[in-house]
Amino acid sequence: MLTLLVPIAGLIFALVYGNLLALNYVHVITGGTWTGIDLFMGLVMSRVMKGLEPQARTQVIKKLVPVMLFLMPSLASVAITSGINLADRLGLLTLESPTIIAAIVIVIILSVQGFGMIMPTEVRVYLELRKKEPDRNKIIKWGMRNIKLAGSQGVFQVALIFVMANLALGFV
């Protein structure tokens, strides 16, 4: 539960006190953590899970889903919210900038994948796991799908980092 509250508390602190450095820190740390977890899931966990027996896969997914169900939406929401606020406060939030438009398009793709595809599937996995006789095949299928989608998110996040690095260097 603490991992869920820390990013949100950091964002609230940065917004309430108007501290630009804190807002930047919250944005970078939550965005970096979100990206790192997605890349880890896609590049490492997908290969690890493929090598496990179905019973072991089910156990890993059973432990992973409750954490991911709450952590990833928290990180994503805080990274996006802090990024929008940061761009606005720095005077960069303009639709005249191709760099900002690229960032917006990538964030929309990440949001649709994360909140529209990954999160609902995580909820289905969680509900299936709570059943008296969970269907292992469904759990594995859905869990592997989400791990692959997380890897896809990692690719989009690397593209977003490229865009953000250009913004940070003044290439608006």
TrEMBL record:
Segments crossing the lipid bilayer: 67-87, 99-127, 147-169
Keyword annotations from UniProtKB, A to Z: Membrane, Transmembrane, Transmembrane helix
Protein name, as recorded: DUF4149 domain-containing protein
